[in-house]
């Protein structure tokens, strides 16, 4: 062995110091980025509790949103009071006329079930303050209109009878309540109106009203699966609503209830507020990569989406999404760990528009054949293929083929990782094998190919133009 010199010892020491500095810097980077978070930081009790609470929700994947109220009469969307600066007196006309003689929630529930939906959320109270339920804290409710019915109770009973879970949407805003800010508020219909400039509002009184109504909703209608609060903005957020107390009350009254994230908290934080919610609720947009917390763990989320362009009924809104678009949106959500809450806006008479039911009927027919690739499924944690999406349930991988392939369909990087491909819709054989011309420089050795017929170089039309699903055993 050669004798160490002072110079070599110094060099060795410097090398060791440099190595440790590099390791420290890399560790700091990976921990701060969350890339190694799941391996280095144990899941919190709050995270585990949320996972248990949302298990049914993450399995269900598809629900119906229902926006319905007085705004169905003007039929220009649920924000008509805001957009047209309507006074309480001008809007009262619709209250005096509200009489949905064709309201049959049993029919609504059948439409939802046949569409493949597993839960439904209905507007108990929207921003206009009108209540579809028989609240003892206001006269501004359906039982005082010509309808003379607790319309929310009928919804709950009908949807439960069809085997669907039920939830309530409740607006934190209230444009009818005298103690909700008018002149100074950024979105109240009377914002900036000189007639309200000097009016005094007792906001604490309004918040007490809000809490009392939520208590009614979670006490008087049996088991409620979801409470969907909407929404916080500016300073009207978090403890402005006494949000911590509100959530404690909700969980005391309904221990298994799940709550959305619109009270104002940030559920992606490592230690989220008590009112941060159980699921993220992106509106009209699909998160590009899903939703993750600061530790890199997946966060439950739900896309809320209009079937046309309005939430409430709008007579002139004919821009309906096609059944194929709805199916592909649902698949996109599930592939990233999310749900789809698809909205319908019933008419003033209480009917779901025919166009809505037509679209939902076709979506339901697709789910009858392919629902196994949606319900109880989640991300496959594979790179998104250029032709569609992957979802996964246990040892079964589902390839959702949206684009017509030319010849064979390439499953990049999946050689020796999948076997026994079959069409999910009917169980028929799909052919798995090598590229038909053998090894080529542009084909990776880890790639494998499928085709829907023989010979493999021929192009066979996709069996389902919405989404052709291939089920495979995965390793």
Structural account:
This protein is an alpha/beta fold and 475 residues long. The protein has two domains: 47-371, Glycosidases (TIM Barrel, Alpha-Beta Barrel), CATH 3.20.20; 388-474, Golgi alpha-mannosidase II (Immunoglobulin-like, Sandwich), CATH 2.60.40. It contains twelve helices and 14 strands. The strands form three sheets. It has a seven-stranded parallel beta sheet. Helix 7 (105-114) runs parallel beside helix 8, helix 7 runs parallel beside helix 12 (354-370) and helix 11 packs across helix 12. The radius of gyration is 27 Å and the shape is elongated. The two termini are 50 Å apart.
Quick recap of the structure?
The chain is an alpha/beta fold and 475 residues long. The chain has helices at residues 6-33, 37-40, 45-53, 55-60, 80-83, 88-97, 105-114, 151-161, 203-217, 243-253, 323-335, 354-370; strands spanning 62-66, 119-125, 165-171, 226-230, 258-259, 301-306, 338-344, 388-393, 396-401, 409-411, 418-423, 431-433, 448-451, 468-474. The strands form three sheets. The protein has a seven-stranded parallel sheet.
């Amino acid at each position: 062995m050669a004798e160490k010199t002072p110079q070599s010892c110094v060099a060795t020491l410097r090398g060791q110091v440099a190595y440790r500095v590099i390791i420290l810097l890399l560790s700091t980077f990976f921990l701060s980025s969350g890339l190694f978070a799941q391996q280095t930081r144990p899941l919190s009790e709050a995270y585990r509790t949320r996972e248990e609470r949302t298990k049914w929700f993450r399995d269900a994947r598809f629900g119906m949103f229902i926006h319905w109220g007085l705004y169905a009469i003007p039929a220009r969307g649920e924000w008509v009071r805001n957009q047209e600066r309507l006074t309480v007196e001008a809007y009262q006309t619709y209250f005096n006329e509200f009489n949905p003689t064709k309201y049959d929630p049993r029919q609504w529930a059948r439409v939802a079930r046949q569409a493949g939906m597993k839960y439904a959320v209905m507007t108990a109270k929207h921003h206009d303050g009108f209540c579809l339920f028989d609240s003892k804290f206001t006269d501004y409710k359906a039982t005082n209109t010509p309808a003379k019915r607790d319309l929310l109770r009928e919804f709950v009973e009908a949807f439960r009878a069809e085997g669907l879970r039920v939830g309530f949407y409740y607006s934190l805003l209230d444009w009818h309540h005298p103690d909700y800010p008018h002149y100074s508020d950024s979105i109240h219909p009377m914002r900036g109106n000189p007639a309200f400039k000097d009016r005094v509002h007792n906001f604490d009184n309004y918040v007490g009203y809000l809490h009392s109504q939520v208590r009614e909703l979670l006490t008087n209608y049996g088991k409620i699966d979801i409470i969907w609060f909407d929404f916080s903005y500016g300073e009207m957020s978090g403890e402005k609503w006494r949000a911590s107390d509100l959530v404690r009350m909700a969980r005391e009254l309904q221990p298994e209830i799940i709550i959305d994230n619109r009270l104002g908290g940030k559920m992606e934080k490592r230690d989220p507020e008590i009112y941060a919610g159980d699921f993220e609720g992106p509106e009209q947009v699909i998160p590009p990569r899903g939703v993750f917390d600061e530790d890199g763990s997946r966060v439950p989320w739900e896309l809320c989406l209009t079937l046309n362009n309005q939430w409430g009924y709008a007579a002139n809104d004919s821009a309906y999404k096609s059944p194929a678009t709805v199916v592909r949106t649902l698949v996109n959500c599930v592939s990233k760990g999310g749900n789809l809450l698809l909205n319908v806006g019933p008419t003033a008479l209480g009917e779901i528009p025919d166009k809505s039911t037509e679209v939902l009927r076709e979506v339901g027919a697709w789910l009858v054949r392919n629902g196994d690739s949606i319900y109880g499924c989640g991300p496959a944690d594979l790179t998104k293929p250029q032709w569609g999406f992957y979802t996964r349930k246990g040892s079964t991988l589902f390839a959702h083929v949206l684009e017509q392939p030319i010849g064979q369909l390439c499953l990049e990087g999946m050689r020796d990782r999948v076997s026994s491909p079959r069409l999910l819709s009917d169980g028929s054989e799909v052919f798995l094998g090598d590229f038909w011309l053998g090894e080529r420089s542009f084909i990776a050795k880890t790639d494998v190919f499928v085709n829907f017929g023989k010979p493999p170089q021929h192009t066979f039309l996709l069996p389902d133009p919405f989404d052709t699903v291939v089920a495979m055993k995965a390793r």
